[in-house]
Design goal:
Layout: H1 10-13, H2 16-41, H3 47-60, H4 66-78, H5 80-83, H6 85-93, H7 98-129
Membrane topology: Multi-pass membrane protein
Organism: Deinococcus antarcticus
Transmembrane segments: 20-41, 47-64, 76-95, 101-123
C-alpha cells in the first residue's frame, strides 16, 4: 500500500502567509495559556515555560501537528539573533561601571561575612548555654 494514496492535510495546501499566521497564532495561544495558568494557579515558574511544556505535550499527543507551527517556528528562529541585540547593547552600556560594581561587591561580601560571623558567634554562645 502506497503512502501517496493518503490525502494531503488541508493546512499543507494553504498559502505560506496563512500557514505562518496560523502557526504564530498557535504558538502565541500556548504562550498565553501558560501565562494565564501560572497567574491563576500562582505557580513559581514563567508562563512561557509552562506554555512550551503544554506545546510539547500537545505535539507528543498529536493534538497539534508539527506542520501547523513549522513555518512560524522557522521564521522565529531566523530572527532569533535580533532578539538578543537589546540585551547586548544594555550590557555594553554598563561595562564602564565596573569599578562601581566592584565596590558594591566588596561591600556586599563584607556585610555577608560580618553577618555570618555574628550569627556563628551567637549560635556558639547559645549552644554552650544549653544544658
Amino acid at each position: 500500500m502506497s503512502t501517496s494514496s493518503k490525502p494531503e492535510s488541508l493546512t499543507r495546501q494553504l498559502p505560506q502567509p496563512i500557514r505562518l499566521t496560523l502557526g504564530l497564532g498557535i504558538l502565541m495561544g500556548f504562550a498565553a495559556l501558560g501565562t494565564s495558568l501560572t497567574h491563576a494557579l500562582h505557580l513559581p515558574l514563567p508562563g512561557s515555560v509552562l506554555g512550551m511544556l503544554l506545546m510539547w505535550i500537545a505535539l507528543g499527543t498529536r493534538v497539534v501537528r508539527l506542520h501547523w507551527i513549522e513555518d512560524a517556528a522557522d521564521g522565529l528562529l531566523g530572527i532569533l539573533g535580533l532578539l538578543f541585540v537589546p540585551a547586548t547593547v544594555g550590557f555594553i552600556e554598563y561595562l564602564g561601571t565596573g569599578t562601581q560594581w566592584l565596590a558594591w561587591l566588596l561591600v556586599m561580601t563584607a556585610g555577608l561575612l560580618v553577618g555570618a560571623g555574628s550569627a556563628a558567634l551567637i549560635a556558639q554562645k547559645l549552644v554552650r548555654q544549653t544544658p
